[in-house]
Amino acid sequence: MSRFNCEKCETKFNVEQCNPVSIQIRIAMRALQPMIVARQAFSGFGLSKDPNYNWADMEQEKQSNGKNPQKKAKTSTKPRAIMGKTKRLVEYKQEKPIQLTLFEMLLPGEQPYSNTVELYDFIPKYHWGKVERVNGMFLKSLEREFECRGSRYSVTIQPASLRDKNGEEKYFYPSKREELVEDALRKFAVEGQGLFLDDAAGVTFTLHQLQQELANNGHTYNKDQIKDALLVCAKTNITVTSEDGSAILVSGLFETLGLQTREDWESKGQKSKAFVRFNPLVTQGIKARKFRQFNYETSMSYKNVVARQLHKRMSHHYTQASMMTPYSINLTTIIRDFGLTAYTRLSHNLRDVETALEEMREKNVVLSYKIDKTVDTELRNKMVEAKITITPHPTYVSEVMQGNKRQATIAEFPGDTTS
Question: At which of 275, 301, 327 does a domain end?
Answer without folding.
Answer: 301
